Amino acid sequence: MNMEFIISNASVILVVVAVICTLISVITEFTKEIGILNKIPTSLQVLALSIIICTIAFFAYISYAGIAFVWYYLVAVVFAAFLVAIICCKGWDYLIDIWKRFYRTKG
């Protein structure tokens, strides 16, 4: 694999995650004071929205790309949805700090 291919895909993934985080944040901001959503913690609402939106985006993508569905893809999407929820609730810096804590470079 060529390095440019890997770099271009990583940037696309970061853009998609940023767009999904923005969408979740906007939806949460507008709906957190409505009805029953007023009674649940905002973090729970963000997690539920993250799982729903990531799953819908995943099925839309595999349908568009013509990729066959395999059950463990859905498990990966739910895991990714948790990461998206962490980014939405705590920010990118929080996730980067966790990454740095567990994956220190030797030097």
TrEMBL record:
Q: Which domain of life is it from?
A: Bacteria
Residues that span the membrane, as ranges? 6-26, 46-64, 70-96
**Alphabetized UniProt keyword annotations:** Membrane, Transmembrane, Transmembrane helix
Protein name (Swiss-Prot/TrEMBL): Uncharacterized protein
Naturally occurring in which organism (per UniProt) = Acetatifactor muris
